[in-house]
Design brief:
- Chains A, B: It holds the Pfam family MarR_2.
- Chains A, B: This is HTH marR-type domain-containing protein.
- Chains A, B: GO terms for molecular function: DNA binding; DNA-binding transcription factor activity.
- Chains A, B: Keywords: DNA-binding, Transcription, Transcription regulation.
- The structure is a homodimer.
- Chain A is mostly helical.
- Chain A has a domain at about 50-155: Arc Repressor Mutant, subunit A.
- Chain A has helices at about 10-20, 25-50, 55-65, 70-75, 80-95, 115-135, 140-155, and strands at about 70, 95-100, 110-115.
- A three-stranded antiparallel beta sheet of chain A has the order 1-3-2.
- In chain A, helix 3 (about 55-65) crosses helix 5 and helix 3 (about 55-65) packs across helix 6 (about 115-135).
- The first copy, chain A, is globular and about 55 Å long.
- Chains A and B meet through helix 1, helix 2, helix 3, helix 6 and helix 7 of A and helix 1, helix 2, helix 3, helix 6 and helix 7 of B.
- Chain B binds a DNA duplex (30 and 30 nucleotides) through helix 2 and helix 5.
Chain lengths: ~170, ~170
DNA sequence: GGAAGATTGATCCATCTGGATTGATCTGGC
DNA sequence: GCCAGATCAATCCAGATGGATCAATCTTCC
């Protein structure tokens, strides 16, 4: 715990270095990375395409899996179901996606991208891939592969989306 | 690109495995990790402490750096200045934080945690540390160290908070 | 076959977010 | 010293978020 009153030369890099070395270092560093990137990406998608980032990510998933159910998007994009519902609704209104009632369950909607939606996805995947290169640039190819594998391990862990320590009872 | 219509046995793990192996694999995996954790953490902090997650993270930073200026919090938590301003306002109203006009610049506010705020931070740091152990559990200690170092490299890269490819003009 | 409980996506509602704006203060040039 | 431009935090406002609710549909048990 450092007091600014005594040391006016503490720079913002020192703030970060200090927090990034603390008890919650992994959380603070990786959150900084994702939050920081989302600021850039969210602003871009909002301004260029007039849609929230959740709409883009939902459309990307539907493009990859034509016929996917709305509820299934949640398994890839951990957002509440009504957030997905609204994204789907906006994408449909914009002509990027269409819904069909499932043949096997009258409650479910099967989602498909339209040609306009497919075009949009292709465009955004390419820009996002370039953007990904940008923030991954500090890593060597070997480091990048390692980062991916470790992130993958965490993503597939049993306790990412559930918790025993943060109970609300 | 896989069609569900032809293969009804595709499971949600396959959706994830497929997206996590695509062109945007690093982005999708690490976003899933941070978003997934934030769902758990945000819900807990909202319910237990009745505050948005940005208030907790802001308070944590003020606790680490007594006297820090509001604008400086942004360097650690990449959120807009008005988000920080509102978090600070809420924390002050709750008695967790106090503001003093800076002696060197009448526009600036120097922030300090109150005893109640310090107690809250200690409590939340401990719970968050345990939570961190939860989602990091799939990694060995060596892997965890590697993940931290690679994340740190990305966080300190020149292109995390800026972009050349996602221009809006 | 009927009823209770579960599931699905749309909708509601309170709150949060983020860009823009504002008033107060500061800085640097003339 | 004065003024134009920059900076800081509070506030505004339109839109997004997330838990709760709802109607329609499905599943399972008796």
């Amino acid at each position: 715990m450092k007091s600014i009153a005594e040391d006016e030369t503490l720079s913002t890099n020192d703030y970060r270095a200090s927090i990034f070395a603390g008890k919650l270092k992994e959380l603070m560093v990786i959150s900084y990375v994702v939050l920081g990137n989302n600021v850039v990406t969210g602003r871009f998608i909002e301004k260029r395409y007039r849609m929230p980032i959740q709409a883009w990510s939902s459309l990307y998933v539907v493009r990859e899996f034509p016929g996917i159910r709305a509820k299934e998007i949640r398994e890839v994009i951990p957002r509440p179901q009504n957030t997905i519902s609204r994204a789907v609704s906006l994408l449909e209104a914009r002509g990027y996606l269409r819904q069909e009632v499932s043949e096997t369950d009258g409650r479910e909607k099967c989602l498909y991208v339209t040609p306009a939606g497919a075009k949009l996805v292709d465009e955004l995947v390419e820009i996002s891939r370039l953007r990904q290169e940008e923030w991954l640039a500090p890593l060597t190819p070997e480091e990048r592969k390692m980062f991916y594998q470790l992130s993958r391990k965490i993503a597939e862990g049993q306790k990412l989306l559930t918790t025993e320590v943060m109970s609300v009872d």
